[in-house]
Design a protein that fits this description.
Oligomer: single chain
Mean pLDDT: 90
Helix content: 40-55%
Number of helices: 3
Distance between the termini: 35 Å
Shape: globular
Number of strands: 3
């Protein structure tokens, strides 16, 4: 994460939980407080850790599906 060229708003975790916990711990260490756990990347350990660290965590939702759903709502509302 030290090599990222731009500031990070949210970390989208798309790796198995046994590796993802290390990523989430790095996020907490870097004060990156928003994490999205893609289906299959979540675990009770990761979610518990995020909650303990007062991180915003999304799970049980696919970012691509949610983006499409949000775009559809925007079109219906004329945005």
């Amino acid at each position: 994460m030290d090599e990222l060229p731009v500031p990070v708003d949210v970390v989208d975790v798309v790796i198995p939980p046994e590796k993802g916990i290390h990523v989430v711990r790095q996020c907490a260490h870097k004060n990156l407080n928003r994490v999205w756990l893609q289906p299959g990347a979540e675990s009770s350990e990761i979610i518990h850790f995020c909650n303990q660290q007062l991180m915003q965590v999304v799970f049980n939702a696919c970012a691509m599906v949610e983006k499409k759903r949000f775009a559809s709502v925007e079109r219906q509302e004329g945005r």
